[in-house]
Amino acid sequence: MNNKTVDRRDFIKKAGLLTAGFAALQFPVWAQSIFAEGYPLHNIPENKGIDPAWARSLFNRGDATTYLKSRNELKYIGMPAGGLHAGTVYVGGDGRLWLWQIYNETFEGPQEGIDPKVVNWNDGTSVRKIRVRDGAAYVEPAIANNKRVLDQGFAIKAIVNGKTIVKELNEDDWEEVSFTASYPVANIKYSSKGFPLEVNLKVYSPFIPLDAEKSALPATILKLEAVNKGKSPLNVSVLGWMENGVNKLTGKAKTGQRKNEVISLEKSTGIFSSFETTNEEVRGATDSGSMSFVLHGTKGRAQTSFSPWPVEGKHFDVAAMSPANVEAPEKLVGSLGFSEHLLPGKSLKANYSVSWHFNNVNPKLKKLVKNAEAGYHYGARFKDARAVSEFINANFNELSSTTELWSNTWNNSTLPHWFLERTFVNIGTLATANTYRFADGRFWGWEGVGACAGTCTHVWQYAQAVGRIFPELERGLREKVDLGVGFKEDSGAIIFRAENESRPAIDGQAGTVLRFYREHQMSKDSTFLQTNWPKIKKAIQFMLSQDKNGDGMTDTPMENTLDAVWEGEIAWIVGLCIAAARAGQAMAEEMKDDTFAKICENYVSNGRRNMEKELFNGEYFIHRPDAVQGRKNLGSYNTCHIDQVYGQSWAFQVGLPRVLDKAKAIAALKALWKYNFTMDVGPYIKTHTGGRPYALSGEGGMVMNTNPRNEPKPFGENISWQLGYFHECMSGFEHQVAAHFMAEGMLEESLVLTRVIHDRHHAAKRNPFNEIECSDHYARAMASYGTFITACGFEYHGPKGYIAFAPKWNKENFKAPFTSAEGWGTYHQQKSGLKQIHNLELKYGTLALNKLSFEKLGGAKVSSVSAQLGGRQIPSTFKQENNAVDILVKERLNVQKNQILTITIS
Question: Which residues form the Glycosyl-hydrolase family 116 N-terminal domain (predicted)?
Fold first, then answer.
């Protein structure tokens, strides 16, 4: 065990799933029932009881999910609204910002998660204490009104029929407040009968796929619009306020003075907040820094000290404004406002931003990661919060328009709104205190907020979103960590928590090999692969060497993501290594390393043959016990395990040829559906106790590992605390299966599984933006993007200039967004008579292409293909093989922003 940090396994062992009695083998009630001779019977019903009409409705486009005050759906909402790796700032259901986890205090132990607390949960047999990493926020979600660390908000004043009316933008002041969000943009609407103004608030941090720099500003943009819905002109005033949050935790009485000063930016007005002190301890505290509040594009009025509350009409009066710089020992709130005469049908617009700059890294983090000593990436880019505001002000139009362009591009699709929301939402994890980027550019993350250090390979390798949306972050992680600080030159082993561990993990190793291939594919050329090939090859060789008997099935006991060392030949690990070896073969072929490519090819061939022969029981893939140890230690053995065909699932993500027989893979998926999926986990978790509460009674989900054949002691002979994991529903694993369902054509199963995850996170119950597993905003949940990839049938290889689409439904009229190495846009395919038309409309960047591949729609043989770019005919040839039509352009195409490439297949 690494003594530098308490990892997930050690923590749960000591404090989470079991009590302190573990050391003396005095188990609590639930543990006794797990390890009793009469293991509970499998009780997941084969008939899922799914309403066919409801299942069909999941395919419909529908409307964006909107949560309403009138349905009491706003209190848990917390959408990350800050930049990547800049802490956690939430926008709540009524548009106010909350949480403010920007002070670098989030850390392993008492400060982990978004709400560090222990809650009670009745698991069906007893009441258990649930910590943050065990799912406390799932049982009792954080409530916005309990976590308003800083005072912030807006108010609007209008004189209506001679009466002055002031309404703050919170749910108490309006008859209806609606919250509609497709990450990264939240839209909040406020309305009341009899009040002529309707107010809309749009909240986000600049978010531009493929631009990790401009997407990582420690700032939130708030765009307000008030529309005069009445029949008479109105005098309207807007006021926004923001508390000086500098040294909020450590700036106590007599330690210094909070200071607000007015700043003038081009066509804009702002307030710069600081804390003046001679106390070195306070100055060096993690909450020491600066903040800035700006009204962009409007020379408004500033009040550096704003009180008292509640907001009244006098606060909007020019005479009441106090623009002079002020200092205060305690709470200090500044405000910015302006007035406008508003005609009927016209609107008033106000663009605000809040910026922060807290570059004193937690000393505990410096001990974990040496790169942290120099501070954060945003700290190296900007001197203080004023500099951040100046950058936003100078680039406001670009930052806001490109963010909204992406949001519109993402939602301009024929795919269901709810599906787009759920498959993309988890990329917001990057905009929480779960991740950091240090001054030298290194990316680093917990597994969940403040829990389990070291950007763990066996967790983060599930996260498909980052490599597609911000590929430079993943390439940097591969080079600086997996092939850098975490790489063992002598063996090729990748330490699964880099400097926070000392061992490799077999699934982390294999998954990272597959990530090498994905990062190569998401590059504009072969520089990444060519530069790193010697180390990548060594990492693959290490993985291959874990197959001791040469049958292509890894059999070396090694750490895995379920925090145990399993012995024997384990289907999900064997299959994952086969997929990784196939990726190794592809990379070796591109590097013209024919000898090594052949070694990988032989491994894949042997492994696939033996896995299908030895580990498939006719219904699903199993874990064959070690020949010597037998079933002495923990394992999945003859049970039905959620990741059993994960290797094939990964292969689909990077366009590899099949690594497992299709019929057997589908059989395994059908077994998972039959034995592990239920529309109500309640009966199962009541009898199979010990898991953590990531799905509760009345909620659907896919259980990690079940014992459909009702074997005694199905998971081994010896007592082992990790067994509790098997009874849980962890969304990252579920998303992986949903992606595989989609890829294999099991569309309804894929959508139902994804939808029950979506419904588990409905705002009436908990925060829709926080999928929990071992703490909040768990990295593995970013596997959800993989389901979007497979729904589009998307493949891409930047260095080869190759792109492909094969949508799973709505094939005759399909539209969806796509990302590539240097650009993103919209793909649209339509069938018109005997023709099918494929458009790639680039919205951002560039797209270099040599080859495109589409699915032939209909039975007629293709007779001709034409390609046009901006009305110009592009010389091309085509090849048809089965249902695939490949189009090769004679000269490399470079599609530019706002250009449309049209392929017509006749």
Answer: 78-388
Task: For residue 493, give the amino acid letter.
Answer: A
172-217, pLDDT tens digit by residue? 999 999 999 899 999 999 999 999 999 999 999 999 999 999 999 9
pLDDT digits (tens, 9 = 90+) for 212-269: 999 999 999 999 999 999 999 999 999 999 999 999 999 988 999 999 999 999 999 9
How is residue 747 written in tokens?
């569309």
CA 529 to chain centre: 26
Would you say residue 428 has pLDDT above 80? yes
Distance CA 170, CA 891 (A): 57
φ, ψ of residue 391 to 5 degrees: the values are -65, -45
pLDDT above 70 coverage of the chain, percent = 95
**Res. 31 pLDDT band, cuts 50 70 90:** very low
All structural domains of the chain with their residue ranges: 8-47+413-791, 152-402, 793-905
3-state helix, strand, coil in the chain (%, to 5): 30, 25, 40
Instruction: Give the pLDDT confidence of 127-178 residue by residue, as tens digits.
Output: 999 999 999 999 999 999 999 999 999 999 999 988 999 999 999 999 999 9
Computed over every residue of the chain, the mean pLDDT equals: 94
Q: What is the DSSP letter of 39?
A: P
Asked whether the predicted pLDDT for residue 900 surpasses 90, the reply is yes
CA distance 97 to 74: 13
Q: In the prediction, which pLDDT does 704 show?
A: 98
Residue with tokens 């790193």: 532
Q: Interior CA angle at 754 toward 750 and 756, to 5°? A: 120
The number of residues making up the chain comes to 906
- Which pLDDT score is estimated for 320? 57
Q: Which fold has domain 793-905?
A: Immunoglobulin-like (2.60.40)
Q: What is the CA radius of gyration of the chain?
A: 28
- Beta-carbon-side half-sphere exposure of residue 308 (alpha carbons within 13 Å): 0
pLDDT of residue 469: 98
Q: Which fold has domain 8-47+413-791?
A: Glycosyltransferase (1.50.10)
Which residues, in sequence order, are CB contacts of 357 under 8 Å at separation 6+? 218, 289, 290, 291, 378, 379, 382, 383, 384, 385, 387, 388
Which residues does residue 197 pair with via DSSP β-bridges, in sequence order?
A: 228
Which segment of 185-194, 316-325, 349-358 scores lowest on mean pLDDT?
316-325
Ranges assigned E (strand) in 323-391: 326-328, 333-342, 347-357
Between CA 283 and CA 291, with CA 289 as vertex, the angle to 5 degrees is 145
Residue with tokens 């700290």: 379
Confidence label for 26 from pLDDT (cuts 50, 70 and 90)? very low
**Cα separation, 551 vs 9, whole angstroms:** 31
Distance from C-alpha of 792 to C-alpha of 735, rounded to nearest angstrom = 16
Show the 3-state SS of 834-881: CEEEEEEEEEEEEEEEEEEEEECCCCCCCCCEEEEECCEEECEEEEEE
Place of tokens 């543990």: 31
In degrees, rounded to 5, the angle at the alpha carbon of residue 782 between the alpha carbons of residues 355 and 734 is: 145
474: left (phi over 0), alpha (psi -120 to 50) or beta: alpha
Token pair belonging to 436 = 């950091």
> Distances from the Cα of 701 to the Cαs of 44, 365, 680, 691, in angstroms?
11, 35, 7, 14
- What the block records as the tokens of 429 is 């994890």
Prior bond to 308 cis, omega within 30? yes
User: Which fold is adopted by the domain 152-402?
Assistant: Beta-galactosidase; Chain A, domain 5 (2.70.98)
Cα distances from 389 to residues 4, 216, 263, 385, 813, in angstroms, run 38, 13, 10, 6, 43
Are the C-beta atoms of 584 and 656 separated by less than 8 Å?
no
For residue 795, give the nearest of 562, 522, 544 by alpha carbon: 522
Distance CA 274, CA 280 (A): 15
